[in-house]
Each structure stands twice: as C-alpha cells, then as structure tokens.
Amino acid sequence: MKKYHIITYGCQMNEHDSENIAGLLEAMDYEYEDDPYKSDVVVINTCSVRENADKRFFGVLGQFKRIRKTNPDFVLCVCGCMPQQPRIVEKINRQFSWVDIVFGTQNIAKFPELLEKRLRTGQKQRQIIDSNPVIDEDEMKPKRMYRHKALVNITYGCNNFCTYCIVPYTRGREKSRMLCDVVREIEGLAADGVKEVMLLGQNVDSYRDAAGSDFADLLHAVNDIEGIERIRFMTSHPKDISDRMIACFTDCGKLCRNIHLPLQSGSDRVLKRMNRHYDMQRYLEIVDKLRATAPDITISTDIIVGFPGETEEDFEQTLDAARRVRYDSAFTFIYSPREGTPAAKLFDDMIPDDVCHERFDRLVDVMNSISLEKNLEYKGRVCEVMVEGRSKNEPDAYSGRTDGFKLVNFTSDRPEEDMIGKTVKVLITESKTFSLEGREVAE
Ligand code: SAH
Ligand code: SF4
Ligand code: F3S
What we know:
Elements: E1 3-8, H1 12-27, E2 31-32, E3 41-46, H2 51-63, H3 65-70, E4 75-80, H4 86-95, E5 101-103, H5 111-121, E6 125-127, E7 149-153, E8 155-156, H6 167-171, E9 175-176, H7 179-191, E10 196-200, H8 215-223, E11 230-234, H9 243-251, E12 258-260, H10 268-273, H11 280-293, E13 298-305, H12 312-325, E14 329-334, H13 342-346, H14 353-376, E15 382-390, E16 398-402, E17 407-411, E18 423-431, E19 436-440
Helix pairs in contact: 7-8, 8-9, 12-14
The protein binds S-adenosyl-L-homocysteine, iron/sulfur cluster (SF4) and FE3-S4 cluster (F3S).
C-alpha cells in the first residue's frame, strides 16, 4: 500500500481540512505513515497568519529536496493559506521546483484529481484561487483525529477585514452552511460515538444561512441532538455577539461554559485602526452579560501588541483591560505585517522590535499571573473532566478538559479503554498556570 503523511500548521480550520485530505487519500487506498521521509505522498497544509509561519514553511520545503532525489515517485503537495497568495505561488515555482502539487483552501475536493494527473502524466499541478468556490463538506469523509470529539465547519471565509489580518484574502468571502446540513453531519457523528463537537468559523456570530437561521438557532438545534454531550465553538467576534447567543449559555444545557473572545487591543484608538468595530465599553458590556448569564464561564482571548502606532498609553489600556476581564487564558502575539493587508499598506508608524518585545513580556507576565490565580480557585474542587487520552508529560496519568476547557492531568486506576471520551469526576489537588492536576474520585 502507498503511504501518506500530512504536516499541518495554523488553526483548527486547517486541522479539519487536513482531516478531509486524509479522508480523500484513504479513499484512494493510501495508508497513514508517521515518518514523512518514508511516505509516497506528503501534504504540507500551511498557515500564513504571521511571518514566522512563512519562514518555517520555506525551511520545511527545503528539507524535502533530498527525498525527491532518492525517490523519483515521491509526491510533494502544498495547500492551505500560503498558496492563496500569488506571490507565494510564484516563489514556490521559482525557488522550490520540487513541489509537485499546489492547491488552495477552496480546492480540497479537487486534490484526488490533481494527484491522479500528477501520477499519470508526471506534470506539476497547480490549482489555486477558485473564483466560484464550492462548499463540498457534505461529500467529504474526514479521517478524524479523535473518536470522541469532532471539528465541524459552520462558516467558511471571513468578511471582517481586520486591517492586520490575511485570513479574508486566503479563505475568501464568508459563507454559512445550511443549518440542516450541519445538524445532519452532527447526527452522523453522534451515531459514530462522538460526544463533543467544536463548531468552527472565523466569526461564528455572523452565521446566517440561506433560510435565515442565525447562530443562536444553530446552537439550539445542535443542543437537541441525542448523544452529543458537549458543544463548543470558535471564534466569537465582539461586534456580532447577540443577546440571544449569550442566553444560550443558560438555555442550551450542552453548551460548554467557555468562550474565546478576542480583544486584540484594549485601546479604542487602536481597535479603530484595526477595523474591529467595537470599543472597550461594548466589549466589557459583553463580558458582564456573559458573567451575569453564566457566572462560572471561562474566558480566553487573543491580543496583538505592537500594532502600528500603538503608544505606551494604548498598551497600558490593554493591560488594564486584561486585569479588568481577568482572562482564564490568552494567546498573545507581536504584530506581524502581512503583505496585501491594509495595515501593511496604510500604517508606517511601526513599533521598534525591542519595544514590542518589552510590551509582549509585560503582557504575558500579567496574563500568566491572572491565569494562575484563576486556576488556584479550582484547588479542592471536584470537576467533571472529559478524558482525551494519556497525559503527554506523564504517561501514567490521563488528561482531559473541564467544561470550561481547563486542561486537567489526573491519575486513575482505570484502564485506557474505559476512559477516552468518558466524563469522570476529578478532585483538583494542584493548580499550575496552564493546567490543573488531580485524581479521579468515585461517581
Ligand atoms: N477569526 C479569528 C482568528 C483569526 S487568526 C478571530 O477573529 O479572532 C487568530 C489570531 O491571530 C487573531 O485573533 C489575532 O490575534 C492574531 N493575528 C492575526 N493576524 C495577525 C498579525 N498580522 N500579526 C499578529 N497577530 C495576528
Ligand atoms: Fe482575521 Fe478579523 Fe476575520 Fe478574525 S475576524 S479572521 S482577525 S479578519
Ligand atoms: Fe492560518 Fe489560514 Fe488559519 S492563515 S490561522 S491557517 S485560516
């Protein structure tokens, strides 16, 4: 049997695309191989959100030149967000001639045809931007990474054009799947034993299908699916969150009490330049409403430091916002100019690297100390944990997630086959910045 390997960078959209690509390859009788250098087909599913992603990708491409020499039948494929940009495709064609197939985020369904053509003719295949994207999810049979939880796309693309962000250019215009199609997919997953679904969209709050159903309608419909125990979603956009959606945290019993609510900056001036369409007053109102609706809700966020023109005062407003919201966790990034985005064109008041790093370190310190304080509140409590598998660092322990998405490493006497996908009670005995520790207790 021929073998394949997939390298995935980037967000959960890419992870799910890779599951679909794996499904397509298995339908062509390919078998998964752990070692890319022993594979017949390698697919690199790329991300372009920050510059270091670009650098890493070209480094990896370089490493594959060698195999091409030793195995002439080897097929190297590049897909994902990077080749959605013409300058990247040009660079691949110019400098990395050993890449056999390049395809874009909207052409995944065409991959088997491209591979077949490459194998038959020996010619390179390029299938990038499709002006009329087709959503082919319903025909896909993804090879899912986990048995008990699944990623489910509800929208594709993004219309928000935050000035720093490449995603609207790499993923195209926003499109919502029909509610009935999403429900049908999740019913199928539940029948397969899936307990938890993660609904995916760049901005789930702007979900609206052709029949007029919105995100709150979708949450209610998914909540009614038998067999599903937990519902998560990402990502929320503060400008589009509705009160009906917030009410779902009490109305929909399966909806996890957790939200990822990107702040990006705590300064209204910077938020405006980022084209985020909310100010701090609106953001904090949402946080207050969420906590009034679900007092135990956990909140995480994304923050960018060093956006062009960010002053010390702007940055201090971000620190204030972090202290005011008291996030459970945060992803913090240094602004990275992306060619083709408005920010890279419009703003030339770049913040020097040393200032960016100094602000980044200060922000991380504040965020980490809040995360630890929040996690300490769990010590001595019993939490319901859905078990994901063995703990990465301690093979004798298990790891799983609370409803609020806290990572818990814990001990139990039960064998693995009794554990994965199950929800168990864990007494929390230790709190760290990024995880909790404990032991399973009787039902
Ligand atoms: N659709 C989601 C996620 C987008 S990408 C959202 O709107 O939140 C994930 C995060 O990467 C963003 O939230 C942002 O914080 C960060 N990011 C995006 N572009 C960036 C850039 N050019 N430089 C630094 N961070 C960036
Ligand atoms: Fe990028 Fe903004 Fe769209 Fe998120 S909402 S993907 S940050 S443009
Ligand atoms: Fe990266 Fe594309 Fe996701 S740029 S963050 S893989 S949508």
